[in-house]
Model the fold of this input.
Amino acid sequence: MKIGELARRSGCSIQTIRYYEKLKLLPIPSRSEGNFRLYDIKIFEQLKFIKRCKDLDLTLDEIRKLLSIKSEPNQECDDVNRLIERHLERVEFKIAEFRQLRAQLISLRQACSENNKAVDCGILKQLTKDS
Amino acid sequence: MKIGELARRSGCSIQTIRYYEKLKLLPIPSRSEGNFRLYDIKIFEQLKFIKRCKDLDLTLDEIRKLLSIKSEPNQECDDVNRLIERHLERVEFKIAEFRQLRAQLISLRQACSENNKAVDCGILKQLTKDS
DNA sequence: TCTTGACTCTATAGTTACTATAGAGTTTAA
DNA sequence: TTAAACTCTATAGTAACTATAGAGTCAAGA
Done:
């Protein structure tokens, strides 16, 4: 499988795949006579693993750690659990942050009563004054 | 006021202030004889405005637009309203995304029943298999 | 006055995770 | 054979910072 097909089937772009290879998240594939990268099923599976982790908003370093644990079957999976736990906490924190931000924006939006000139703009006034 | 004091009082770092000057989000300040930047109250206020917008998660380009409207008091503030509205929509979308992500992580966490070897790890298994 | 530590300067490079592009080589189907 | 699609490496750019090197300035204390 060449890189274009791998990209289509994995949902990652060609450049991203090369990037991951450079970061050593993916192994170096064999090459054709014309120097094209040739991917086997194992690398394809690894890329799909990475993509699933990316879709979970894990950082590339976290993904690297999971790959490392995965590659050593006798290693304890306590670290996996902990990593996911910490990630969940961060996501929950982000949710809280964004909800607070939403409340702020809703409140700010209410400062704009009518179509005014900028000099009378309730939103700009709120953004200007000290709280 | 020199840049260190401005940084402390605004909550932005020295490098960030220089960065904003380079981006023309802040005007070029006067200089002392020793070539130190000297900031007056107007620039300080502008930086605080930028900081408040940053705290609302607006992009620098959005902040640039607000500053532009603000600097022309006869301009319609309809654009301000629209910008905040769109931002609010994006925040709400992000909340939905993170909530979905949270559900996925909670579900994933439940795949890990006990302290296993990596080869038996429920989380890694979930991340490996096709959905 | 001298010294020294704190402060400031510019230039440059790095962070994270990509993304784009230039110029060149390879492949494939008509 | 030809031309379009594909692939390659190298380099630079994106957004929003952040760090650092090496040099200059300032201010307080001895």
Notes: The longest strand of chain A covers residues 30-31.
